[in-house]
Design a protein that fits this description.
- Helices cover 40% and strands 20% of the residues.
- It starts with 7 loop residues before the first helix and ends in a 10-residue tail after the last helix.
- It has 2 domains: 3-172 and 247-287, 3-Layer(aba) Sandwich (Rossmann fold); 175-236, no CATH class.
- It has helices spanning 8-13, 21-46, 77-82, 98-107, 121-129, 154-163, 174-180, 191-201, 206-210, 229-243, 274-287, and strands at 17-19, 52-57, 64-67, 73-75, 90-95, 114-118, 139-145, 166-172, 211-213, 223-225, 254-257, 263-270.
- The longest helix is centred in the first third of the chain and has 26 residues, at 21-46.
- With 297 residues, the protein is of the alpha/beta class.
- A 7-stranded mixed beta sheet has the order 6-5-2-7-8-12-11, with helices on both faces. The protein has a 3-stranded mixed beta sheet with strand order 1-3-4.
Length: 297
Amino acid sequence: MPDEFVASDRARVFRPDEIRYWTEVKLEIVRDYAKAYATIMQKQKEKRVLRRFAYIDAFAGAGLHISRATGTYVLGSPLNALVVRPSFDDYYYIDLDSQKAGELRAACVEHGNVHVWEGDCNSVLLSDVFPQVRYEDYRRALCLLDPYGLHLQWDVMREAGAMRSVELFLNFPVMDMNMNVLWQDAASVDSQQAARLTRYWGDESWRDAAYRPSPDLFDEARVEKVPEANAAVAAAFRTRLRTAAGFAYVPAPLAMRNSRGAVVYYLFFAAQKPVASKIVNAIFRKYANVGLATRRD
């Protein structure tokens, strides 16, 4: 790990988040693709068909974690991106937590092309970041949208697709969905929780994927969760990224599982070019079953 990112005085004052193995796998996946992406974009710049390319992290955190498995420091995605070669031209980082945003800003203080915002990424992306990577300005971006739960809004994903210049890695937080929304009996779900999923999804079509009419002859209006709801909802969202957000290529997402095999979330990728999909499919296959038999939560 580069020494510039692990200052001992900062580590003593600020305790980084502890991450589990599936987060470490995700970091490796994004880093692997970022290297391939930067190589391709740099060649496009050399051909003078592209001016600049950027890395965006909308839930950036402090940039440093502690591995639960080993107790060692692990670079987060913002700092991983800084050590990718060829280098990105610009880095746009956002976090709602003021302390984390401050820690990340301090870690990147010597990098003049790093821009850190403290705020809600749903507004910052649309107002401040996406305008910096417009297709018509010959700019491109790789964007990581990695919320812990249903904190992302559909408008962000739809705009990224419409721009044609942004490729996405996206956390589809099925654990939050199952805990708070996708209950066996839809009628018992709190309306505010259901509204969170609707904001993430963009409309209420998620209900069609997650529920079906109950066989209860005495309550025809009742609906129950389908047995395969996780996979069904993820498949429906994959279709939605293509048809409603306008991404031409959305590979089958990678199910990120805990040591018991339960899906924690699905990692989606969305892009406009077939080569991007081909590369990500290969990376997903590489990491699909990494350490599954020996993982520990």
